[in-house]
Write a structure and sequence with these properties.
The complex is a heterodimer.
Chain A (H helix, E strand, L loop, with lengths): L2 E11 L5 E12 L4 E6 L5 H9 L6 E6 L2 E2 L5 H4 L3 E4 L13 H9 L8 H5 L6 H13 L17 H13 L5 E5 L7 H18 L2 E5 L3 H6 L3 E6 L2 E7 H4 L4 H7 L14
Parallel strand pairs in A: 3-8, 3-9, 6-7, 7-8
Antiparallel strand pairs in A: 1-2, 1-4, 4-5, 9-10
Chain B lengths: L1 H13 L1 H13 L6 H18 L4 H26 L3 H20 L3 E3 L5 H4 L8 H23 L3 H11 L1 H6 L4 H27 L1 E3 L6 H16 L4 H24 L7 H14 L16
Helix pairs in contact in B: 1-7, 1-12, 2-10, 2-11, 2-12, 3-4, 3-5, 3-10, 4-5, 4-10, 7-12, 8-10, 11-12, 11-13
Classes of the chains: A alpha/beta, B mainly alpha.
Chain lengths: 268, 294
């Protein structure tokens, strides 16, 4: 599904008084299936943008549309039925006391309200069929967790929990996937595993994806498009081909620079 | 001597709904719900009123459950819709419920002279009426454990468990925390009201003040049960809570046997719970702090 962010407005009070209008008519359009990597310095609005799209923050104006359907007015839990999300902290994405299979089940039925008749009378879950399906999925993805479906997620390492969070975010066929620095808390090995899985899942599902990262190596390696934010404005927008002109060093040099024209490609 | 322990078993089983209700709100939902003090008396008072007016006891019990669930719904809505702190929301409801229960009962005490007919038809196991009560209450409590174990294994039950475990994750997976909390608190208070009704039936009277200290009794049952059985699954946790309720009553019976004055029971119960928390053997979310204070 395509994502259209139009005229987005959002601001917040400053600690010393006054008001900071971070987003003031922000625009972003992502065609169906596009994998967009978002970079920018701290406080530029990357995570805030994801929070505004996911509904964790309420926009002061503008619209967020998925395939023409306006999500403004939808609470975050309702948006979560069409938006999969992986957060920075591995502790945020899973319920630690529940098993892997139970966590996956919750993610799988995200599209329906579990507090209706179906939630109570729809049978016991995760059922044997559910477990077989999850085992097959995890095996297909090459994850060793396939044999640990009945392990409480709280017993897993941070990397394993983030792996489960990622699989959960893509279950239930979300229309949009939001990844908010989802490898920032992981060691390099776990980061590589999670990023490789991210790439495979996004390509397999063809889900429109926004990935926020501080890793310039990731920014230059993954995704179909790279965008750079500064002070709530899009100051750089490059296709995968255009992105090849950068090195991590030259891209880092653009951080904090206001000279890059929004929506344009720029020489390093 | 045996009758004292059978009586403790009966009391423990009658109070099992209270322990299960507290388990549901505190352990599953991670919600410290003080409404139970009010909904326990509401359940007892409403059931006694209906039975004294010749309504069949099963219907009176169902009405008590419905009223308890309604009380829980009020607390849930005050907390989720108005953003009132969980403890304060429970205090508000339970304060209001004291008047509601008194108004409903019309007086502070309703006596119930005869046990329900169905109980007198049960085999007495050679133990007299207390044996018949034990059998009846065992059937009710076994049904409750079975029902709750099944409910918590549905998608709705999974969602409630996730919500208490990690509300951020729950919302990110499409679960309405407001609706979930309200449903869970309503269910918990329905169980508590059922316990109130059963205790009124067993004791042969309902009193408008019978709910005072119910939360502590429920907590005590949860703590004792979890300490003894160390459950690792939801059905075992439910069973542990019921066992805890019976053991807790047995401890009270023992204390009385050893000469403790009934008037000292509530203080002794509170001190017992405090000792369990202070020793750190059991961690109750939001009631015990692993880090402690300097």
């Amino acid at each position: 599904m395509s994502l259209q962010v139009r005229d987005l407005r959002w601001g917040h009070p400053q600690p010393g008084g006054g008001w900071r209008q971070l987003f003031d008519g922000f625009q972003l359009a992502c065609p169906t299936g596009q994998f967009v990597v978002v970079i920018g310095s701290n406080g530029c609005g990357k995570s805030t943008l994801l929070n505004l799209i996911a509904g964790s923050l309420r926009a002061g104006g503008g619209s967020v549309q998925l395939d023409g359907r306006d999500l403004v007015g939808w609470p975050d839990y309702r948006r979560a039925r069409v938006i999969g999300r992986v957060m920075q902290n591995p502790l945020d994405g899973t319920a630690p006391s529940l098993t892997i299979a139970e966590n996956l089940r919750l993610a799988e039925c995200r599209r329906s309200s579990v507090f209706g008749r179906r939630g109570l009378l729809g049978g016991l879950h995760p059922s044997r069929a559910d477990r077989q399906r999850y085992r097959a999925l995890l095996q297909e993805l090459g994850l060793p967790l396939a044999d640990r479906l009945d392990t409480a997620v709280g017993q897993l390492s941070g990397g394993q929990r983030q792996t489960i969070s990622l699989v959960m975010a893509t279950l239930g066929k979300p229309s949009l996937l939001l990844l908010d620095e989802h490898t920032a808390a992981l060691d390099p090995r776990a980061e590589a595993t999670v990023m490789e899985l991210t790439e495979r899942l996004v390509r397999r599902l063809g889900t429109t994806t926004l990935m926020v990262t501080h890793s310039l190596e990731q920014a230059l390696r993954y995704g179909d498009r790279l965008v750079m934010l500064q002070d709530g404005q899009l100051i750089g927008d490059w296709s995968a081909a255009e992105r090849q002109q950068f090195t991590p060093t030259s891209l880092r040099a653009l951080y904090g620079s206001a000279t890059v024209g929004a929506g344009s490609s720029t020489s390093p | 001597m045996l009758s004292i322990w059978i009586g403790a078993l009966d009391q423990g089983l009658a109070y099992a709904g209270l322990a299960l209700g507290v388990y549901l709100t505190l352990r599953v939902l991670n919600f410290a719900d003080i409404t139970v003090d009010g909904s326990f008396a509401l359940g007892g008072g409403s059931a006694a009123l209906l039975i004294s007016r010749d309504v069949a006891p099963p219907l009176a019990l169902l009405a008590a459950v419905a009223l308890g669930a309604l009380a829980g719904t009020v607390t849930g809505l005050i907390h989720t819709r108005l953003g009132v702190n969980d403890l304060f929301a429970g205090i508000l409801t339970t304060t209001g419920l004291y008047t509601v229960t008194l108004r409903l009962m019309g007086r502070s005490n309703i006596p119930l002279t005869d046990p329900p007919l169905a109980i007198r038809h049960l085999p007495d196991l050679g133990l007299g009426p207390d044996g018949q009560w034990a059998l009846a209450l065992l059937l009710v409590v076994a049904g409750l454990i079975g029902f709750l174990a099944l409910m918590l294994a549905t998608d709705m039950g999974l969602a409630l468990r996730a919500l208490g475990n990690n509300p951020v994750m729950a919302r990110a997976n499409g679960i309405s925390t407001g609706r979930g909390l309200t449903v869970g608190i309503a269910a918990g208070n329905g169980l508590v009201a059922l316990a109130g009704a059963l205790v009124a039936l067993y004791n042969g009277f309902a009193d408008s003040a019978m709910g005072i200290g119910s939360l502590i009794l429920g907590l005590g049952a949860v703590i004792v049960g979890e300490s003894v059985l160390r459950p690792r699954s939801v059905p075992m946790a439910l069973l542990a809570v019921v066992v805890g309720s019976v053991l807790f009553r047995a401890m009270i019976a023992l204390a009385l046997q050893l000469g403790m004055e009934p008037v000292d029971l509530k203080l002794a119960t509170a001190l017992l719970l405090l000792a369990a928390l202070a020793l750190g053997r059991v961690r109750i979310p939001r009631l015990s702090d692993p880090g402690g204070r300097p």
